[in-house]
UniProtKB/TrEMBL annotation:
CC per GO annotation: nucleus
Pfam families xref list: HTH_psq
Presence of keyword Lyase: no
Transmembrane segments: none
UniProt protein name: CENP-B N-terminal DNA-binding domain
Keywords attached to this entry: DNA-binding
InterPro entries with a match to the protein in the record: Homeodomain-like_sf, HTH_Psq
Location of the protein in the cell: Nucleus
Domain HTH psq-type: 108-139, 140-171
Length: 181
């Protein structure tokens, strides 16, 4: 006997298709969201959403609001506002400076000098500023040298474990060329 789809299986497939249509409708919403104040655009978006909701519910001749409730899909205006708010929230995250390359600003010699300066009594903040090394890196390396596991130090000072492992490995120390002194 052939497999028959249940109503729930059809509904799930239709909801997936509806999410694809909504993704296309809402693409770039943060850029054009000010136009949502326009009644004409809202009507066009609502018209498309109503057709999608009708197909999801397998309904006909039902009001846009009723179909939206049955389909469980919020109105398009609310979805636009949600996208804009999430975009604005992500915009407030730490920003990458324009035309700034995030590269390591120190080498192994400076790191060794900074650690030595700290061991000789220089405050970490002052050593970090003088040798241009992030203070968290110095604190993490010092903690590891005092017996803290690398994984725990990485979590505590918010530094990738691989970075700490590399900084403390022999690979980080470049070989010197020329005769031994």
């Amino acid at each position: 006997m052939a497999h028959r789809y249940t109503n729930q299986e059809y509904l799930d497939k239709r909801r997936i298709l509806a999410s694809v249509v909504h993704s296309q409708l809402l693409y770039g919403a943060p850029a054009w969201h000010t136009a949502v104040d326009s009644k004409r655009l809202v009507q066009r978006l609502s018209r498309v959403q109503r057709k999608v909701n009708i197909r999801v519910c397998s309904a006909c001749r039902t009001s846009a609001e009723g179909v939206a409730v049955i389909a469980g899909i919020p109105p398009i205006e609310l979805q636009v506002k949600e996208r804009v708010e999430s975009f604005l929230f992500s915009k407030n995250m730490p920003k990458v400076k324009k035309d700034y390359k995030y590269t390591k600003t120190y080498n192994e010699e400076e790191l060794a000098k900074a650690i030595e300066a700290i061991n000789n009594g220089m405050p970490k903040k002052q050593a970090a500023e003088k040798f241009k090394i992030p203070r968290q890196t110095l604190q993490a390396i010092e903690a590891i040298n005092n017996g803290m596991p690398k994984k725990q130090a990485a979590e505590k000072f918010k530094i990738p474990r691989q970075t700490l492992q590399y900084r403390l490995s022999e690979k980080f120390k470049k070989p010197t060329h020329g005769p031994a002194t």
